[in-house]
Amino acid sequence: MKAMSELPSGFASGTSHCFRFLYSSLVEYMQLAAFIACIVMSSLRLKRQDYVDARNQEDDDHKNIRQSLNIFYALVFSQCILHFVTAIVARPSERMFVVCLKYKLDLWGLLALTRYLQECLLKCISGDLREAVNMDLVSFAKQMLNSNNSLDDQLLGIRILDHLLRIKEHKAMVLTKIRSSLDTVEKAVYMLGLKKEVEQDTRGHAARVLLELAPDLQVESFPGIFQSISSLLITHKATISGSVSNSIRVSISKELTLLGVDILDKLLTNPENRAEAKNAKNLLSKILDITNCKDEKTLDSNIDKMIVENSLDVLRKLVSTAGETGEELRCQVSKNMHAMRNIRKFFIDYAESQPAMLAQAADILACLALNDSARKEIERSHLIIWKLISLLAEDSDEGQESSVRVSATGVRMSAVEALVLLNAPIKENARISAVNERSIMAILSETKLEDMQRIVSTLSDESAEHRIMVAKFLQNLRGYQGAHYGDQLETVNKALPKEMEALMIKEQGKLLESFIGLCMQTCTSGNAKQFTNALRNAEITNDMFVQMLRKILELYKSPTPDAPGIRRVVIQQMNWMMDMDSKYINIFLRHEMDKALKEVAQTALKLENYWFFRFDVGTFEHDESISSILSISPLMQAGGSGL
Questions:
Q1: Does residue 577 form part of some domain?
Q2: Residue 198 lies in a domain
Q3: Alpha-carbon span 421 to 374, nearest angstrom
Q4: 81 occurs within a structural domain
Q5: Between the CA of residue 474 and those of 88, 127, 423, what are the distances in Å?
Q6: pLDDT tens for residues 75-116?
Q7: CB 97 within 8 A of CB 110
Q8: How do residues 24-61 score in pLDDT, each as one tens digit?
């Protein structure tokens, strides 16, 4: 982010220092002029030796005048030379000017350095020579910041720290010194909450310092930090009139709001800080209010776009939090009456112009789908579901620029993830719940036949990550057993041969799990003839297909969160095949699949009870464990073996 421009009150608080500096500089230059005049005059008199009129040189009163005046002017000349050299060598103005240029302190830096030299001199006079020598500019700034003398001193301290942090080669050192002082960080946090208009400059510098510190801050060490940050967030839409002062105030408010949002964004990168955010009064509601864009004219400048985009990122981090903290945060968002309305605007009004915001909004929807009340509200919003389907089914234009194509791909990934979690199985796939069926029907009702055809075609055209999510999405849709939407579901059925071909080739891990899951769901929702025809069209024999299933069980003896259900869907596929045709029992026995199933029973893991892992946390737990599915397997019963 570009450094925020200096807030207008910068010099207002330092007027007295400015006059003092100008006065001292004027006196210095007058002294130098006096030294130069004395040097010139004394050198001329020494050269001319015209102390006495030539007619009076032999008088007794003037015999020794030449020697006396030569000594006098020589002393004056030497003393002025010494004073002049001392003034030039010891005079700090030029060196201060060089330091200001090096550290980019601008003109106000001369005031700061003058004060710094004064402090060093006072320490020397008081006998603290070692402390004076060891006091660098950072230590001086911390001393000023933590002083209780005046707001001017505190502003000077925080301003020096802010500008030093902008210098790349010194940034790491300055950050280390600031972090070592808890009082300095606490003071910066306190400054965020200043209310008076003349204190806005101080807030801006404090906010920029905290922005650099935020990635490593533990919120629990600084109670009230979220409230202080929240005070930076201006949620009302300010109207800029013709007044220059009004325009400046609005500009300052926007800059402070952007800084506040950016600090939150960095703080919430640490999951431990999100637990504190849920207890911060009005913070979440302010973030939601900031994301409220009435129309595209609202985003009339880069800073407006950055505020909204970064606010969406903050909201995404909050609702994607794992565990009980995440559940509570998603519940708070779902209860906010404006949350879904604001998200809907990004899908309807800014789909073309703001792809990054659209992708973030889709990510937020995906997380909110984990909350029951939010899921219901999404289901009722036909425009949102229609837009998600349209984004997923959208053709990628090869003629687009690479950056545009990457943005479009990111939007489609976010859209399909939102759809996957929206129609995720609440119960076992074979017996979907009423909640799951309601979600699937809401999606199918907005999916045109041509859209479904394009979505199915992406199973072989898109990236591996995209194919994984599309396969899971279609797997969930195919769990629908109702009498409607037959054409769309038949389109999914027709892709079964391609799915089998993919299984036989090279797919592994998450992609393999998603494809075998889609294959299993298509089979269990169809009939034996459809399965047999698919094998024939894919040129796969029964033995080849069974060998493939056995190989999967051998390769994935210890499933990971990447593919937690891979053995589950293999067993469900086997059970369906044997239920449809008992001949498969003998085929499985011939390939010793009964032994493979016994090994699965002995090595079953808890993570296999979950359908999906998001942020390393299992979601949508299955009703039936692996052991329960194995207990009803005809193959195990045929082998006469207990589990």
A1: yes
A2: no
A3: 12
A4: no
A5: 82, 80, 10
A6: 888 888 877 777 666 566 667 777 777 777 777 777 788 788
A7: yes
A8: 667 777 877 887 888 888 888 777 777 666 666 666 66
